[in-house]
Amino acid sequence: MTREQERARARRRHDKVQAAQRRRAEQRARTRRLVAVVATVAIVLATVVGVALAMRPRGDSAAAPSGAASPTGTAGPSGRCTTPPALQSKPKQFGEVPDKATAEGATWVATLRTTCGPVTIELDGKAAPQTVASFLHLAREGYWAPSPCHRLTTGSLSVLQCGDPTGTGASSPGYGFGIENAPADGAYPRGVVAMARTQDPNSNGGQFFVVHQASRLPTDGGGYSIFGKVTGGMDIVDQIAAAGSDDSNGRGDGRPKTPISILEVSVTKKKA
């Protein structure tokens, strides 16, 4: 074999080695690209699933079937109501009207823990200082623990009335006070909270009502004191109203068919 033939043979061996190395390099590059694509797809899928889970409606528990009874056997809004406790036979009595200075000029937040869930009310101590002072006093003294919402009306007057521990609509905390912040036109918007009273304008005490549909009340005698508005739990009031009353007088006025009672009332001063 000549020297020229040996050199040609060596070049061929070199070219084969180089070609094999290029093939292996290309294979490694294809493998890296495939791994990168798979990793990218996995990241995208994880992101999509995470977003879907984050946007899912949340709840503390599974929704109860429509019309289901609560664990204690009382049907209520979405099955959430529990059986109200027994009525108070001898509610606490107080000899003097609370000092309005305790509430004057401030806004307060009251949370009513009820057998159907919490209802939050913002109390206006600027517009109705005497009424709010009385509410704060009765809440702190546990006057309404417990007490039922004993009256539901529908129609031109649409209110849920609460605050009488005996459930008769006839009791008081042992004192009375006058009207304040009553609308001159007798218009009571949905969600406002006002005092219930007799024909005596100084008979405001412990009973109050939540307006579940805009209503117009008589202005004779001075009207009814607005002292707050519902800021949370209006859906509970709505569902109690939707269930209707026993209509004891034939005028859409009676005890709620779905019983609801106040178990506890807590109050805090709203931060400026």
TrEMBL record:
Biased composition (Low complexity): 61-79
Residue ranges constituting the PPIase cyclophilin-type domain according to the UniProt record: 117-267
Catalytic reaction annotation: [protein]-peptidylproline (omega=180) = [protein]-peptidylproline (omega=0)
Broad class of enzyme this protein falls into: isomerase
Keyword entries, A-Z: Isomerase, Membrane, Rotamase, Transmembrane, Transmembrane helix
Record has Methyltransferase as a keyword: no
Transmembrane spans: 34-55
PROSITE patterns, per the entry: CSA_PPIASE_2
EC number of this enzyme: 5.2.1.8
Superkingdom: Bacteria
Any one GO MF annotation of this record: peptidyl-prolyl cis-trans isomerase activity
Stretch list, region Disordered: 1-31, 59-99, 243-272
InterPro entries documented for this protein: Cyclophilin-like_dom_sf, Cyclophilin-type_PPIase_dom, Cyclophilin_A-like
Role summary: PPIases accelerate the folding of proteins. It catalyzes the cis-trans isomerization of proline imidic peptide bonds in oligopeptides.
Family: Belongs to the cyclophilin-type PPIase family.
Protein's UniProt name: Peptidyl-prolyl cis-trans isomerase
